[in-house]
Amino acid sequence: MSSESPKRLLFRQFAAVAKAVAHEHRLELLEALAQGERNVELLANRTGMSVANTSQHLQQMRRAGLIESRREGKFTFYRLSDPAVLDLLAALTRIGERHVGEVDKIVRTYFLSRDELEPVSRSELLARMKDGDVLVIDVRPQDEFASGHLPNAINIPLEELEAQLATLDTKKEIVAYCRGAYCVLSFDMVERLRARGFKARRLEDGWPEWQAAGLPVVV
Amino acid sequence: MSSESPKRLLFRQFAAVAKAVAHEHRLELLEALAQGERNVELLANRTGMSVANTSQHLQQMRRAGLIESRREGKFTFYRLSDPAVLDLLAALTRIGERHVGEVDKIVRTYFLSRDELEPVSRSELLARMKDGDVLVIDVRPQDEFASGHLPNAINIPLEELEAQLATLDTKKEIVAYCRGAYCVLSFDMVERLRARGFKARRLEDGWPEWQAAGLPVVV
DNA sequence: ATATCAATCAATCAAATAATTGAATATTGT
DNA sequence: ACAATATTCAATTATTTGATTGATTGATAT
User: Which end of chain B is more exposed for a tag (fewer CB within 10 A), N or C?
Assistant: First the structure.
C-alpha cells in the first residue's frame, strides 16, 4: 500500500547495480570483459570458476545492466554494456587505493617493484610512439590481443617470450602492458626483459584504460 | 595455506568497497553526506532510520573507506572521504539510467515534468550568473545550505516559499537546485513558482555535482 | 533422429547480511 | 559525583546470497 518516495525507489535500483559489482568473482569477470567480448566457457576457464557458477554471475550482472549478451550459434557472448562500467571500476579502485589500508599492504607486498619499474604514463607512451623509438609489447593472451590492442603493439604472452627473443629490436626501449594497473603479466615481462639486458618499462595501466581514454587503437 | 594471487586479494578489497555502497539506505546516507559533514542523529532523522541502524551503516562505510569521521564533543561528524565517492555514485547513476528498465519507469512516473521543466546545465547557469540576470534559489534545508552553496544563491526551503515570495525579484528568471538530479525539492519549487507566474527552471543536478565540477562556491 | 556441446535452470545447503533491541561508553553540564 | 546526551556495541532473528550438483534447453553436426 505504501507508495514510497521516488528517490527511495531509485536508490533501490542503483543499489542493485552496486550489488552486482560487489563480489570478488564478478569484478574478475568484469576485468576480463573489459578486454573485449567473451563467451561463458572462456570466462570460466580464465577465472577458474565452474561454468554454471560463471553463468549465474554473468546473468546477475546482466540483470543489473552492467553487461549485455549476444547469442551466436551455440555460444553466448557477453560484453560491458557501457563505458560507465569502466568509470565505476576506476572509482572503486581509486577509493580502495587511497582509503583502504589492506590495499596498500597488498600493493607493497606484491607490487613492490612497482616504483623501481617506473611506469610510463599513457601520454608519455603516446608521444614516444609518434617518435617511433619505442617497442610496445602486449603481454595478454592472444584472444585478448585480437579483440583490440595499441597501434603497432606486438603480442608476446609470457610463455612465448623465449621463442620471440631473437626477433626483438635490442636498440629500442620496450614498453609492456596488459589488462590494467594490477595485472601482473606486464610486471613479469619487464622483469624478464631487464634480466636479459633490455631497457624495459611498464605502462601505468592497461588496455581498458587506454581505450576508455579515447586514444588510438587497433580493433 | 594457499597464497592467493595478488589480483584476487585486491579484487576482494575492491568488492568490499562496492558492498559498502550496495544498499538503499547507505546510498541515501551518502547523498546526505555529499551535501556536507553531518552527525549521526541528524542523518538518522533525515533518512527516517533509527540512530543505532544509522550508526552501523556509517561504520560499515567507514571501514570500507567511503567516509571518515571526526569527534567533536558529544558528536561524531561523518564526511565523504574522497571526491572519487561522487564519481562512484555518478557512475552507478549513469549505468542505472541507461541500462535498467525500472529506473526509466520510475523517472517517467514521478519525474515526467522533467522535460517540460527544461533543466539548465551547469555551464549555462554559470554563464547567466556572470551576466547577473538570474536568481538562484537553493531549496535544501538550512543546514545543508550553510555547509556550502552556489555563489549568490538564496536559501528558500519549500515551506518558506510563501513567506519569502514578496522579496523575490519578479523580473529575473529563477533557477532552483537542491541535492542532485533526483532530488524532488527543486522540481516542487519550480512548479510552485510557475504556478505563481514566475519564470523558473531547474538546474540539471545539484550541489554535489556543482562542487565536484570545481565551479565557484561559497563555503 | 541422434549425439554433442554451450549455456542455463532448479534445488540444496552453507554462509553472510540487515534490522531490532537493550545495554554499554564517552563526553558534557550541573 | 551525577544525570543527560550522542553514539556505539552485542546478541538475536529473519532474510538474502553464493557455490554446488545434476537435469534441461537450444543449436549444430553427423
Answer: N
**What is the distance in angstroms between the Cα of B131 and the nearest Cα belonging to chain A?**
34
The nt closest to B23 (CA vs C1′) is C18
Q: CB B14 to CB A8 under 8 A?
A: no
> Which of B9, B7, B11, B182 is CA-nearest to residue B107?
B182
D8 C1' to A7 CA distance, Å: 29
pLDDT tens digits along A12-31: 999 999 999 999 999 999 99
ipTM exceeding the 0.85 mark: yes
CA-to-C1' span, A3 to D7 (A): 32
Is A100 within 8 Å of B24 when comparing Cβ atoms?
no
Please tell me the predicted confidence (pLDDT) of residue A189: 94
In chain A, which residues have their Cβ closer than 8 Å to the Cβ of B66? 95, 99
Tens digit of each residue's pLDDT (9 = 90 or more) over A83-141: 999 999 999 999 999 999 999 888 888 886 656 778 999 999 999 999 988 999 999 99
**Taking a C-beta distance cutoff of 8 angstroms, is the pair A137, A174 a contact?**
yes
The pLDDT assigned to A114 comes to 58
CB A11 within 8 A of CB B49: no
At which residue does the C-alpha cell 603516446 appear? A126
Residue A1: how many other CB atoms lie within 10 Å: 2
- Reported as a single tens digit per residue, the pLDDT across B153-172 is 999 999 999 999 999 988 89
- Report, in ranges, which bases of strand C sit under 7 Å from a protein C-beta: 5-10, 17-23, 26-28
H or E stretch at B38: strand B38-39
Q: What pLDDT does residue A130 have? A: 93
A183 is a catalytic site residue: no
Cell of A64: 543489473
